Amino acid sequence: MESKKINLETTCPNTWCPGCGDFGIMMSFKQAVTALIEAGTPKENIVVVGDIGCNSKIADYLNLNSFIGLHGRSISLAEGIKIGNSNLKVFVFLGDGACLDEGISHLIHAAKRNTNITVIMHNNRLFALTTGQFTAVTPKGLKTRSTPEGSIEEPLNPIELLIASNASFVARGYSSRIEDVKNLILEADKHKGFSFVEVLQPCVSFYNTIEFYNERVYYGQNPNLESKESAMKLAREWNYNGEGRIPLGIIYKTEREVFETEEAALLPKVRNFEKCLQAHL
Ligand SMILES: Cc1ncc(C[n+]2csc(CCOP(=O)(O)OP(=O)(O)O)c2C)c(N)n1
Ligand code: SF4
Fold first, then answer.
1. 204 lines ligand 2 (CB under 6 A)
2. Which bound ligand lies closest to the C-alpha atom of 56?
3. Which one of the ligands is nearest to 202 CA?
4. Rounded CA gap, 126 and 104, in Å?
5. Could you tell me the sign of the dihedral formed by the alpha carbons of 98, 100, 102, 104, in that order?
6. Most buried residue among 107, 142, 145, 164 by CB atoms closer than 10 A?
7. What is the pTM of this model?
8. Rounded Cα gap, residues 82 and 84, in angstroms
């Protein structure tokens, strides 16, 4: 029997700049979603949560259930969706600005809780939709609209931050490596727990890093994926400034209790407590 064609296209006009790394990320995700559906996941069980920014337009361009939240708040929304219906596969798309500036507390707490969602951070290392202001991962010295003399701050290393925050799956991809990003998304989805996938993404209009990444990325190997020490060593090979090679791939992975499962087990007890309270009122 001929298989039914999976249509992920929408009629929404695409307004990304030609050459933007967001195209590669969307292509990787489409391939990953197609593989999931072909393997038996009902299409309606896949949810895309968008944030605000160039990256989050992905929700408009995909014929999938989606929800767009406030800037920096999409991770909390995604946690709510997953807690409400744990059968759903929830993928969050957001930029480095949303993830590491406005939304950094949501990111850290979701990682700490180990809610079983996948966060895909498009890292173009600035606020792109608003025409290029510096974010927490902008390299020191870069001139942007908000740092005309060059940023005077050292950038944050999000991979180190996520490992330290107890995220149970941490990976890095590059938007030009479409097949590899697809595989990272599938691995992140398979992982039971909070998965963080950083995808380095050139912004051709405000910070064109294509050549920079092409010269530096390589597939890093953590000899013991469950070791935070060796994961940190790999994470520190690149400090988000100019120096160092940039390792891609899964950097850290471990198994631990998932938040929504623990929470569901607690609910009957909490409901019982509510009844007791009402009886005493
Ligand atoms: C709370 C809040 N702060 C600021 C803005 C303004 N704003 C809209 S899009 C944007 C830039 C988004 O940057 P990023 O999250 O890195 O995504 P990108 O556009 O780079 O993909 C900003 C600052 C907003 N909408 N809400
Ligand atoms: S401004 Fe940058 S991130 Fe936004 S669509 Fe254009 S190239 Fe992509």
1. yes
2. 1
3. 2
4. 15
5. positive
6. 107
7. 0.95
8. 5
Rounded distance from Cα 1 to ligand 2 centre (Å): 42
Structure-block tokens of residue 191 = 């992982």
Rounded distance from Cα 8 to ligand 2 centre (Å): 22
pLDDT of residue 276: 79
**Radius of gyration for the alpha carbons in the chain, expressed in angstroms and rounded:** 19
Rounded to 5 degrees, φ, ψ at 263 are -65, -40
Q: What rounded mean pLDDT belongs to the chain? A: 96
Query: 246-253 and 169-174: which strand pairing?
Result: antiparallel
Name the fold adopted by 22-256.
Answer: Rossmann fold (3.40.50)
Residues 109, 112, 115, 121, CA torsion sign: positive
Q: Looking at ligand 1, which residue's alpha carbon is closest to its atom 25? A: 71
3-state DSSP assignment of residue 166: coil
Indicate the top mutation candidate among 71, 198, 201 to test ligand 1's pocket, ranked by most ligand atoms within 8 A of CB: 71
For the segment 56-87, what is each residue's pLDDT rounded down to a tens digit?
999 999 999 999 999 999 999 999 999 999 99
Q: Where are the domains of the chain?
A: 22-256
Atom of ligand 2 nearest to the CA of 131: 1
The Cα–Cα gap between 55 and 29 comes to 13
In one-letter notation, the amino acid at residue 90 is V
- Whole-number Å distance between alpha carbons of 131 and 137: 16
pLDDT tens per residue across span 11-51: 999 999 999 999 999 999 999 999 999 999 999 999 999 99
Q: Which two tokens stand for residue 279?
A: 């009886």
Nearest atom in ligand 1 to the alpha carbon of residue 97 is 16
Torsional sign, CA 215, 248, 187, 60: negative
